[in-house]
Amino acid sequence: MIDNAYYSSDIHQDFDIVSVGRLELEEGGVIEDTTLAVRTWGTLAPARDNAILIPTWYSGTHQIWADAYIGPGHALDPEKYFIVCVNQIGNGLSVSPHNTGDPTIAMSRFPRVRIGDDVVAQERLLRERFGIERLALVVGGSMGAQQSYEWAVRFPDQVLRAAPIAGTAKNTPHDFLFTETLNEQIWSDPGWNGGEYTSHEQVRDGLIRHAHLWGTMGFSTEFWKQEKWSALGFGSKEGFLTGFLEPYFTAMDPNALLAMAWKWQRGDVSRHTGGDLAAALGRITAKTFVLPISEDMFFPVRDCAAEQALIPGSELRVIDDVHGHLGLFAVDPGFIPQVDRHLGDLLSLPV
Amino acid sequence: MIDNAYYSSDIHQDFDIVSVGRLELEEGGVIEDTTLAVRTWGTLAPARDNAILIPTWYSGTHQIWADAYIGPGHALDPEKYFIVCVNQIGNGLSVSPHNTGDPTIAMSRFPRVRIGDDVVAQERLLRERFGIERLALVVGGSMGAQQSYEWAVRFPDQVLRAAPIAGTAKNTPHDFLFTETLNEQIWSDPGWNGGEYTSHEQVRDGLIRHAHLWGTMGFSTEFWKQEKWSALGFGSKEGFLTGFLEPYFTAMDPNALLAMAWKWQRGDVSRHTGGDLAAALGRITAKTFVLPISEDMFFPVRDCAAEQALIPGSELRVIDDVHGHLGLFAVDPGFIPQVDRHLGDLLSLPV
């Protein structure tokens, strides 16, 4: 195990580690002790009908949801809903290459985990830990959108509403290749050492290059042109890279990023229907709002709209944000109000 | 000097090496023997009024223009025009870090060259070698567009028509950062050795990663989604990377790519007007067609349109091509017909 301060309660307050036990993975591996980092808000109603699930995105944890999306006055209101945010497997808080106590799956031996494995683990957690068998809403961004789609397709009877934000049900080839370029920044750092480093600091150079790729694809051309970083308190684009993106990613565990990336690249609900995406999305009975971000460079609106068109009774709700994909960080003052309006509309719909 | 077979007449037929002598550079360095690789087509009219200049793009040479853009039946018709394609300084054919015989500027000692330096060298070449003092047209793609804009702003009386394709007059911050990520792939390869490798093969890993970045930013999300590589004879996206983009870039000289990248990052015609882009573009008297590519990920149409709006009497002519920026390779059957139509319209306009 590697001690990495980023994955501590100093940075990530108030979460529980809950094991859902042995998890047999789609790719054939096994995690014997599948620990999930879980944060909850609010109270489960006696009828158990007010539960909202939030799965996390690549590099993300429950903390950004705590900081920006959840609270009184938001659509995700703990006074009305019991909200459960489950950190995805491999994200550094839930069971991950660097934090597992099981040497057979530590570091370079960590097994391949798929989006479906996360959803199976989450379903088990909700049922066994909280007695939740039906979700009022599943909502997530990016890889959280992938998991939201997977929930709606895999467990249609258990999902009343779904809100995938800035993500797709079937990963695109461009996205696969973009993610591969992220991985290559880590793989090419000699300090990565085939996944057998002893501190994430040894992979700092690769993580910095990785952060820079997020600069050009995660934000939009217009973000940089309009110098939106200045509103975040930075004096130059270089200062934004060294003061924001670089510290964000260099704090993280490289193998955690690689584990999530492998999963992200292969997200595909049509695995349930022999590759027929229309058939898979046609199974969705949840009331679904598809929420792309207008300036997203790698989950462009048209890719999300094409999937939305295959979901019965769904709506396309485009979030207007010049920040692009990393608008998910909710740094634009206009971002959360739009999310709140769309999620509020969705939650108010009878199902 | 490093012998690199890519920069030979086996690959690049029929070009001349012409020296324009000593070139004092904007950044303070000097190239004593400024050799330019030049290819011409057609015959200069006695009135010397049928000359067309084509500057080259990042990684490009005159060869792509010979193969795809120039010939009978094209707007760039050697039966009507005297066409001069000048390879940019640092492109591996013109004077470059790996091919100079001057040890004071070889390899890591190669001086910083700006777009304006190229244009000054080209103007001297045209005047001294061919007696050309006025251009019927300057046309180029990407960095060739940067040089076209520089010509029209720096020498307004010498340019009758200009057609910048898929490029900008003032480089955008996003573009600067994207180019930096390309550079980082080379810099991070231990074989690059601070620019003092003895064969470009030593930087192969970095050049492969560099090629992959072109895959995700140079082509468009739609290129990959529509599997446009299949029309180019490849069986998979991976096969297209290993069979097309990787061999293309791994054949090249890393320091040449870095020299061009430095120049690209800093292209800015407003250097002539104290940073006032509107004033710089307002100086243009050439009849100008601005030709962005519809799916370009890093020279988006709106960036080009914003500049076009500042050029008196100009027109915006968007080239529709799902290939994105690397549509410049003219692999889509619909690409060259559009270029021919727009350039034909422009050349037929009285000036």
Write up this protein:
- Two copies of one chain form a homodimer.
- Chain A has 351 residues and is of the alpha/beta class.
- Chain A is built from eleven helices and ten strands.
- Chain A has helices at residues 62-69, 115-130, 143-154, 173-187, 204-218, 221-225, 237-250, 254-265, 277-282, 301-308, 335-348; strands at residues 16-19, 23-24, 30-31, 35-41, 51-55, 82-86, 137-141, 161-165, 287-290, 315-316.
- The first copy, chain A, has an eight-stranded mixed beta sheet with strand order 1-4-6-5-7-8-9-10, sandwiched between helices.
- In chain A, strand 7 (137-141), helix 3 (143-154) and strand 8 (161-165) form a beta-alpha-beta unit.
- In chain A, helix 4 (173-187) packs antiparallel against helix 5 and helix 5 crosses helix 7.
- The termini of chain A are far apart.
- The mean pLDDT of chain A is 98.
- Chain A binds chain B through residues 172-178, 180-181, 184-185, 188-190, 205-206, 209, 212-213, 215-217, 219-225, 227, 237, 241, 297-298, 300, 302-303, and chain B through 172-178, 180-181, 184-185, 188-190, 205-206, 209, 212-213, 215-217, 219-225, 227, 237, 241, 297-298, 300, 302-303.
